[in-house]
Write a structure and sequence with these properties.
two-stranded antiparallel sheet, mainly alpha, 296 residues
């Protein structure tokens, strides 16, 4: 079982893939050398990595991996199965598609971009629903109760939320893949790096792990399109408890269009949710798992 957990460091589809961690560290060191961040107080400190909230992250990380292997994974079908069923459905409903007018290179570019945009947009919608729908917020607040943030905090999610996120990924990838495969008569091949959408791979390599950190790194005007680490830290700010602010994953464009975008101008004083509003103890792994099921 230990090998399953360690294998995340060698899984390009996971944010803990070691090149992503190395690139995030390199960016952090560069920002520190330029005087943009304080590495001593925001990165290289035991108070951060051994905080009770961080220790809860580590514990939940291992428990979730076990639950995912034993319970969640068997419930999921692959996106390939969904795609095949979509192709058959479209063929039956609409017959043969018209001749696809784009060459192989253009098809790959369009398909890669379409997969990335639809995946990011549906992540935004699900994330927003997690905040707006009271039943879903009961589970999503497990993620927001983190009082310090490290890359492992990304995995501080309740298994119920993990299942919903996985279902979203399978459904979106399968539907878009099947529809585009039908439309292009099987020519649809996305550009990938190590099995990961090329756009997502590049953005992960560009420091996505810094979004769950204490390193205040804004993107300036690019924040209207791309979600900066600083913007996501505002999403976790104690002052807002994560509501109405910066729901996007890679792209902040969806927030800009829906009115929830906030530029990174003032660093939050603290992260988390007021304890009086929580259904669990943010420092206790068993409470993180069981608390959302209890009625308040």
């Amino acid at each position: 079982m230990w090998t399953e957990w360690v294998s995340l460091l060698d899984a390009p589809e996971e944010r803990l893939f070691w090149p992503y961690l190395v690139s995030a560290l390199a960016i952090a060191l560069l920002a520190g050398a330029l005087g943009k961040v304080s590495l001593r107080t925001d990165l290289f400190t035991r108070a951060l990595w051994w905080h009770p909230s961080a220790r809860a992250d580590y514990g939940l990380f291992f428990v979730r991996a076990l639950i995912s292997i034993l319970l969640v994974a068997p419930l999921l079908v692959s996106s390939t199965v969904v795609a095949v069923k979509v192709v058959l459905l479209f063929s039956k409903a609409f017959g043969a598609p018209p001749e696809w007018p784009v060459g192989s290179l253009g098809t790959t570019v369009i398909y890669t971009a379409l997969l990335f945009v639809t995946s990011d947009a549906t992540r935004f919608l699900l994330h927003k629903a997690m905040h707006r729908v009271p039943l879903l917020w009961r589970f999503h607040q497990v993620h927001h109760s983190a009082e310090v943030m490290t890359p492992v905090t990304l995995y501080r999610t309740h298994p119920v939320e993990g299942l919903l996120v996985a279902l979203r990924g399978v459904a979106v990838t399968g539907f878009v893949g099947g529809a585009f495969s039908w439309l292009t008569r099987g020519q649809a091949v996305p550009a990938e790096v190590l099995g990961v959408n090329a756009v997502a791979f590049v953005l992960n390599l560009a420091g996505s792990n810094l979004r769950h950190s204490h390193l205040w790194i804004p993107f300036g005007p690019l924040e209207w399109v791309l979600m900066s680490p600083a913007q996501h830290q505002l999403h976790h700010a104690l002052e807002t408890s994560g509501h109405e602010v910066n729901y996007g994953s890679f792209l902040s464009l969806w927030d800009a269009l829906s009115g929830s975008l906030v530029r990174a101008t003032k660093r939050p004083a603290a992260f988390g949710v007021e304890r009086a509003h929580l259904n669990h103890d943010p420092w206790n792994v068993f409470s993180l798992l069981g608390g959302p099921f209890r009625r308040r």
